[in-house]
Amino acid sequence: MQLVTAAEMQKIDNYTVETIGMPQDVLIERAAMAVLDVIGAGHFNLDHILVLAGLGNNGADGVAIARLLYAQGFNVSLQFVGNVARAKDAVHRQLAIIEKYGLVRAEKSDFNQATLIIDAIFGTGLNNILPEGLQKMIKAANHIEKTVIAVDTPTGIDASTGEVRGAALKAHTTVTFGYNKLGLTQKVGGHLSGQVVVKDIGLLTPPDMTFSVPERP
Ligand SMILES: NC(=O)C1=CN([C@@H]2O[C@H](COP(=O)(O)OP(=O)(O)OC[C@H]3O[C@@H](n4cnc5c(N)ncnc54)[C@H](O)[C@@H]3O)[C@@H](O)[C@H]2O)[C@H](O)CC1
Ligand SMILES: [K+]
């Protein structure tokens, strides 16, 4: 299986969007649908699903996941981490859509009430130590041992190295897109990611792409 670093994944993402012309929102929708497939195929308690969303494209995936669940009639809460005013355009586009669906963002959520948490806070864009407030929140969430499905990577795990950036949200399952990430196979990331499921979302790899880690059988 081919493993990729965060930078390699970003190169593939950019190639698919900018050279091939696949709209970013199509990739986000497919990423969200892939996560719903995994939720549906597992034995998760779906009584109250809490989606935690960040301000980048990982968060945009999270908003789309919340919408798809809500449209299917699930009891879903969507909680943002960070100031939504500073979110990327893809998040704002998703927020405009959910408004029309009637899905209202939660201002504050009780983690204890959740039967399943979807972690869409940070993905491959993580590039620094997590803010202190988020580290505290993650440590508290780990403490109550809720079942977590991580979107692309568990928040706080460096997708390239598997190291923890201050704190990391322990996942039962990680649904990762296109290729498995090196950081989900080694160091803390190797066990904190839980079961890793790689899903095709229609990404195309540049023909001249070289990978830093050779493909493993
Ligand atoms: N790879 C793909 O083909 C696809 C990826 N998708 C999803 O998008 C994320 C990656 O999105 P990106 O916007 O690049 O990054 P993040 O959402 O992980 O992070 C957002 C943003 O936050 C800033 N940031 C990074 N680290 C920190 C920090 N420690 N503290 C504060 N702020 C931080 C930085 O500016 C980041 O850009 C990928 O994982 C997938 O889930 C697409 O949806 C589908 C295609
Ligand atoms: K995540």
Topology of helices and strands:
Elements lengths: L2 E2 L1 H15 L3 H18 L7 E5 L3 H15 L4 E5 L8 H13 L14 E5 L11 H12 L4 E4 L21 E5 L2 E2 L5 H6 L2 E5 L18
Parallel strand pairs: 1-7, 2-3, 2-4, 4-5, 5-6, 6-8
Bound molecules: ligand LP7C6HRI and potassium ion.
InterPro entries: YjeF_N_dom (IPR004443), YjeF_N_dom_sf (IPR036652)
Cofactor: K(+)
GO molecular function, one term: metal ion binding
What's the helix count?
Answer: 6
Largest sheet: 6 strands, parallel
The low-confidence runs, each spanning 5 or more residues with pLDDT under 50, are none
Which sequence of SSEs, written as H and E, runs from N to C?
EHHEHEHEHEEEHE
Structural class assignment: alpha/beta
What is the spatial order of strands in the main beta sheet?
A: 3-2-4-5-6-8
Supply Rg.
16 Å
Q: Name the ligand types.
A: ligand LP7C6HRI, potassium ion
> Termini, distance in Å?
6 Å
- Based on CA inertia axes, which overall geometry fits? globular
> How much helix is in the residues?
25-40%
Mean pLDDT: 97
What is the number of E strands?
8
Strand content: 15-25%
Outline the structure in words.
Its cofactor is K(+). Keywords: Isomerase, Metal-binding, NAD, NADP, Nucleotide-binding, Potassium. It comes from Leuconostoc lactis. The protein has helices at residues 6-20, 24-41, 57-71, 89-101, 132-143, 187-192, and strands spanning 3-4, 49-53, 76-80, 116-120, 148-151, 173-177, 180-181, 195-199. It has 217 residues and is an alpha/beta fold. The strands form 2 sheets. A 6-stranded parallel sheet has the order 3-2-4-5-6-8, covered by helices on one side. A two-stranded parallel ribbon has the order 1-7. Strand 2, helix 3 and strand 3 (76-80) form a beta-alpha-beta unit. Helix 2 crosses helix 3 (57-71). The longest helix is centred in the first third of the chain and has 18 residues, at 24-41. The mean pLDDT is 97. Bound molecules: ligand LP7C6HRI and potassium ion (K).
